Amino acid sequence: MPSTAVHAIGLYRGTYSRARPDLTRRAQDELYALYGQGAIKPLVSAAPPMAEAKAAMTAVASRATTGKVVLTTARGGGA
User: Fold this and answer.
1) Considering only Cβ atoms within 10 Å of each terminal Cβ, which end of the chain, N or C, has fewer?
2) Residue 6: its pLDDT value, please?
3) Which phi and psi (to 5°) does residue 33 adopt?
4) How far, rounded to the nearest angstrom, does the alpha carbon of residue 37 sit from its chain's CA centroid?
5) Residues pairing with 72 in the sheet
């Protein structure tokens, strides 16, 4: 039986979103809908406070992280 799992690793959409903003907007809307339904669950590996942004970006740039790194604010709370 074929797998229905889909993985997007290291997606850069900058140039594509300028070339086809209609498609990138539609894809973004569909992803938000799937997230809202609980159908997809992004892996958040770290949620440091904004004060640690430099260290967090260094970890991302050096590929020392897996999943998303989400910077948090005092107002937004933490993970």
Assistant:
1) N
2) 64
3) -65, -45
4) 17
5) 49
